[in-house]
Amino acid sequence: QQQVKQSPQSLIVQKGGISIINCAYENTAFDYFPWYQQFPGKGPALLIAIRPDVSEKKEGRFTISFNKSAKQFSLHIMDSQPGDSATYFCAASMRGSSNTGKLIFGQGTTLQVKP
Amino acid sequence: AAGVIQSPRHLIKEKRETATLKCYPIPRHDTVYWYQQGPGQDPQFLISFYEKMQSDKGSIPDRFSAQQFSDYHSELNMSSLELGDSALYFCASSSTGAPNEKLFFGSGTQLSVL
């Protein structure tokens, strides 16, 4: 059972375009939603993250939009560049006396930005 | 800035052999997580440690064990290796005192079981 569902599985965007990746979750106890970028043979690297009390967060060309009522969040990459070609994972975690903050990942989206 | 260090980078083993993967967290990070990532798959949580005690357990086979030492480094021990254990194994670390409790990942150990 995939607790965090991510789409699309793959995405091709022209240079300069907008890349949009979507995620949905079921567990309302999740309170931290990061996005990770992974290049082949490398570990996931934290890109940007958001908490449920904020509807949008922007860092440079990367924006997270968060819809708490719909239990959905998305990553927008503006002015996509060939160097952005990588696999992107959304994730979720929760904190509490019985939780450790481990990340639950989505299935990943392979992004290819064409020159 | 110092990152999470994993060793070895690559490991080739035969079926039924044992393997030990090491992880050195970012200095002053007190929590370590182990993940397994199969080809084209998302990372799957195996186990975590906080202050040298196991804090959470995921889909880790009984053939695997792990521990965190006094210097906070961690080792994942894998016995009776199977072909299906071939994967990329990541270690991540975090600091419970940090406001966002971000997880930082190492570059991983690529384990190939032949």
Notes on the protein architecture:
The complex is a heterodimer of chains A (115) and B (114). Chain A has 115 residues and is mainly β. Helix content of chain A is 0%, strand content 55%. In chain A, strands 2, 4, 5, 9, 12 and 13 form a six-stranded mixed sheet that branches. Chain A has a five-stranded antiparallel sheet with strand order 1-3-8-7-6, with no helix packed on it. Chain A is globular. The mean pLDDT of chain A is 92. With 114 residues, chain B is mostly beta strands. Chain B has one domain (5-113): Immunoglobulin-like (Sandwich), CATH 2.60.40. Chain B contains no helices and eleven strands. The N and C termini of chain B lie far apart (36 Å). In chain B, 39% of the residues are buried. The interface between A and B is medium-sized, with 23 and 29 residues.
Brief overview:
The complex is a heterodimer of chains A (115) and B (114). Chain A has 115 residues and is mainly beta.
